Please model this.
Amino acid sequence: MAQQSHSVTTLPSAKPSPKTPKSVPKLAGGWPLIGHLPEFLKNPVSMLSRGWHEQGELFRFRIGPRNFVLFTGPEAHDFYFRAPEDQLNAKDVYQFTVPIFGRGVAYDISPELMAEQLGFLYPALRESAMRRFARIMFEETSRFTDGLGEAGVIDLPHAMNELTVKIASRCLIGEEVRDQVDTGFAEAYHDLQNGINTLGFFLPRLPTAAHRTRDQARQKVAELFSRVMTERRRSGVRPDDFMQTLMHARYKDGRALSHDEITGILLTVLFAGQHTSAVLATWTALELIRAPSYLARIRSEMQDVYQENADMSHSSLKQQVLLEHAVRECERLHPPLILLIRKVLKPLHYGDYIVPAGTLAMVSPAVSHRLPHLFADPERFFPERFAPPASEDKQHHYTLIGFGGGKHRCMGKHFAYQQLKAIWTVLLDRFDFQFDTAFPAPNYGSWVTGPEEPCRLRYQRRSRAGIFR
Ligand code: HEM
Model:
C-alpha cells in the first residue's frame, strides 16, 4: 500500500487504540536465518524506502537474529522522539562507543547523568561563543586556502576532514589541542575513529589488533587532554572553551568532574560533531558544483552581504539565506546519519500496532527526507523548497530530522550550519571548482554516510580580489 498522496493530518494517530493490538506489518522478501541482510547491505535506503511504499509508516524486518521496526513520517517521528528513555533506549544501542568515549560518560551512564553532563556544554554554544567561533572558522579556512596555491586537485572528503578537525579541536576543545593536531592528536583521533567498525559494534571489547590500537589511542588523547588541564590549573589561564567550561562545572551534588570524565565528554562531542560536519561539507560542495546557476546566486548573495562589511561574522553568515537553504537541502538529501536506533525496553503501542520489547526501533532521515507527499520531486536538489511560500520543512516539527529530535537531538546543529557556511563562503570566494571524478554514490559501508571515493575536485584560484579583507 503506497502512501504517496495523503497529507500529514490523515496519518494514523499514535494513541493506543482500544482494539486488540496487531503486530507491525512485515516487509516482503527476506531469507531464512539472515532475513533482509543482503538487501540491507546493498542499499539500506532503497530497501527501507521500498518498505515505506509497501507498508506505510511502520513496518518490520529482520537482519540475522535481530528484529527491526522503522518509523517513518512526521507523526511517527514525533512519537519516536517523545518516547521515554525506559521504553525506547539509546544507551543499549550505542555501547560500542564506550571504549572510545570512556567509562563514566555518555552511553556508559544513566540517561539522566548523560543529559546533565551534556547540559554543561550548552552555555559554551551560546550566541557570544558562536560569534567567536565564526572568526575561528574563517581563520582556519583561510589558512587552509593559503596552502592550496593557484590551482590543483583536492581529495574533497579528506580535505573537509582535515579542516573540520582543526576547527573542531580549536572551538570545541581548546587552542592547545589545535596546536598539537599535526604533532600527534590527528593521528590518535584517526586511530580512535577506526575503532568504530562493524566488529566493534557487536563485540566492542574483543581483543583484536584494531581494538588494541583504539585503546592505546584513547590513552594518548587522555594524557594530552590531562596535560593541558593540569597546565591551565597551574598557569591560571582560563580560555573560553568547552574544556574550561567542563573544568568549572559541578554536578548537582557539588562534585567537580574528573579529568577522565572531561576527556570523555569532549570526545563524545568531537565524535558527534566533527566527521558528520566534514561529510555534510563534502556533500554541500558536490551539490553546489552540480548546480552552477544556484551557485551563481550564492556568490551574488555573498557580494551583497559582504560589500558593506568585509569581515566574516556570525551575523553576516546568518544573512546568507540562499547558502543556508543549500546546506539544508544537503541535510535533506544526504543526511550524514541515515539511521537513528533505539532498543525497545517495554512494549510500544503505536496506533493499532504493538512493537515488542527487544526490537530495535529506527527512524531513517534518509528515507523520511524523500517522502513525496512532503517534498516535491524529492530526488531533486532544489534549495528553493525551503523559501516561502513553499517552506516545505515547516509543515511539521519533524519533517526534517537530519539532526535528530527529542531528548537526544543534536546540540551542535547551529554550530554545524555556521561552520559549513563559513567554509564554503571562503572557498567559493577564492576558488572555482570542477569535478575531477564523477558525482559519487553514497558509501553506506560506514557509520557516517559520505560519498564513495575517489571523490576529487579540480580548483583554480579566482583572478579578482576576494570579498574578505
Ligand atoms: C552536520 C553535522 C551534524 C549532524 C548531521 C549531526 C546529527 C546528529 C543526530 C542525528 C543526532 C541524534 C542521534 C540520535 O538520536 O541517536 C545528534 C546528536 C548529537 N550531536 Fe550532532 N550532528 C552534527 C554536528 C554536531 C556538532 C557540531 C556537535 C557538537 C558541537 C554535535 C553534538 C551532538 C551530541 C553531543 C549529540 C548527542 C545528544 C544526546 O544523545 O543527547 N553534533 N547529532
Remarks:
- The mean pLDDT is 91.
- Residues 259-290 form the longest helix (32 residues).
- DSSP finds 18 helices and eleven strands in the chain.
